[in-house]
Amino acid sequence: MDIVTRIEIDAPKEQAWRVLQDVSSWDRWNPAMKKLSVEAFEPGGKVRFTIKLGPGPLGGAAVDCDMAWVRPGEGFAWRGPSNKLLKRLVEGEHYFLIEGRGDRCIFHHGERFTGPLSGVLEAVAHEKMEAMYSSVNRAFKATVEAG
Predict the structure, then answer these.
(1) What residue ranges do the domains of the chain occupy?
(2) Model pTM?
(3) CA 58 – CA 27 distance, rounded (Å)
(4) Is the Cα torsion angle 6, 112, 131, 63 positive or negative in sign?
(5) Neighbour-count burial of 40, counting CB atoms closer than 10 A to its CB (0-12 exposed, 13-18 middle, 19+ buried)
(6) Residue 37: helix, strand or coil by DSSP?
């Protein structure tokens, strides 16, 4: 299953990158991923966050991943879950990529799921996940454009 979203931002790529790589600010603007921590911006660095699945204090799930790749000034991706048993069932590579277009940029945000349960995930949650990723995109755009 693939989730592919994108949004055009009225700001240069460098401004978008500053917001994206400042993980300490994600709680202020990101409606879906909270308490994000990145051990190191390099392949293998540990990534932890809580994904907001619904309202209230029980509407979230802790996620542990590993940084898959980093392109400074452009984007990064993490792969998870880190748990080896869960990884055998379903694994996702979640990416954020900024494409420069002069004084504007395009933010590409998505995830590719693989494994035996990826088809079940697609049947049950594809539309909701795509909507969640789009809400992250809109919040990112507003934050970047606000400067």
Answers:
(1) 2-146
(2) 0.93
(3) 17
(4) negative
(5) exposed
(6) strand
In the block, tokens 């990723």 appear at 133
For residue 147, give both structure tokens: 């400067």
CB within 8 A of 108, min separation 6: which ones? Answer: 4, 5, 6, 75, 95, 96, 97, 98, 99
The packing angle between helices 13-21 and 118-146, to 10°, is 120
Q: Residue 125 corresponds to which tokens in the numbers above?
A: 């949650």
**With contact defined as beta carbons under 8 Å apart, do 10 and 145 qualify?**
yes
Q: Which residues contact 9 (CB under 8 A, 6 or more apart)?
A: 16, 104, 105, 106, 107, 140, 141, 144, 145
Measured torsion, CA atoms of residues 59, 22, 67, 39, in degrees rounded to the nearest 10? -90
Across the range 22-27, mean pLDDT stands at 95
Phi first, then psi, for residue 40 (nearest 5°) are -160, 140
Q: Which CATH architecture has domain 2-146?
A: 2-Layer Sandwich (3.30)
pLDDT digits (tens, 9 = 90+) for 112-140: 999 999 998 888 888 999 999 999 999 99
